[in-house]
Amino acid sequence: MIQARGLGKVYAGKPAVDDLSFDVQPGSVTGFLGPNGAGKSTTMRLMLGLDRGAGSTTFDGVPFTSLHRPMNRVGTLLEANPFHPTRTARNHLLMLALANGVPASRVDEVLEQLGLATVARKKPRTFSMGMGQRLGLAAALLGDPDTLILDEPANGLDPQGVHWIRDLLKGFAATGRSVFVSSHLLSEMALMADELVVIGRGRLIASGPVGDFVKTSTRNAVVVRSPQADELADLLRREGATVERIEPGALSVVGMEPSRVGDLAFEASIRVHELAHRAATLEEAFLEATQDAEEYHAEVSRAVEDTS
Q1: Does 221-278 match 2-215 at the fold level?
Q2: What architecture is the 221-278 domain classified under in CATH?
Q3: Which of 53, 141, 205, 307 lies in the 20 to 30 Å Cα band around 12?
Q4: CA dihedral for 86, 87, 88, 92, sign (positive or negative)
Q5: For the segment 22-41, what is each residue's pLDDT rounded down to a tens digit?
């Protein structure tokens, strides 16, 4: 289990990470989300003792810097191309194995597992970004650790590779181990993660199961179609719901369960042709939760053609 408590880091007088605390449970994939500049990479570095700052992080009660042979306990991938460009892929992993008391036979196991066996004797400088990410993951898995901490591991992977890494991480967590992974691929995170830690401007916004986070979105709605839509909308508003007309004869209702909408329509003799729940996506919930915590706002400008 990972326990982060009171993590903090200040750059040039500005907090990059601000009193951040959360847990990562064993047996789960925990997604780490935040807008650009939210402090995700800095947080991961603080967790591993790679940056000086406030707070502490323990792995099963022990700080990373106090772990004996930490590669056997925590596997990490924090940066792209974390290898020597002129050393072959196999020799890169072999060097790490020897330095951390890992049997040399494990090198060939992870090369096979990561789909790198055919390029084991090639130099990483010739690799695509996706292949470089696979080599970084091989290094993270080399010590057969209990925990993985991965910063954007799907960068550079094609759709098949993204699917592959999802299965890899979910399978890792299914054995009772922990995965803490950041990603900007929200649709993929929705399929992969069990839990979320969401931050903005270095502060915690939400922590808990993915489903609970998505339920907080106001984009969750009841869609109802009726030939008496205007009459139904007035009725639902009087009962406290927020109602929006989405097209002729169709309403989006927020703040009321489908069963309540149906009961009210029945009691008022209003015909209903469709009644369905529309669940928010993780992307919608994330954008809504972090809209006030973006570090960089892009302005949308409209080019106006001068016709004079």
Answers
A1: no
A2: 2-Layer Sandwich (3.30)
A3: 205
A4: negative
A5: 999 999 999 999 999 999 99
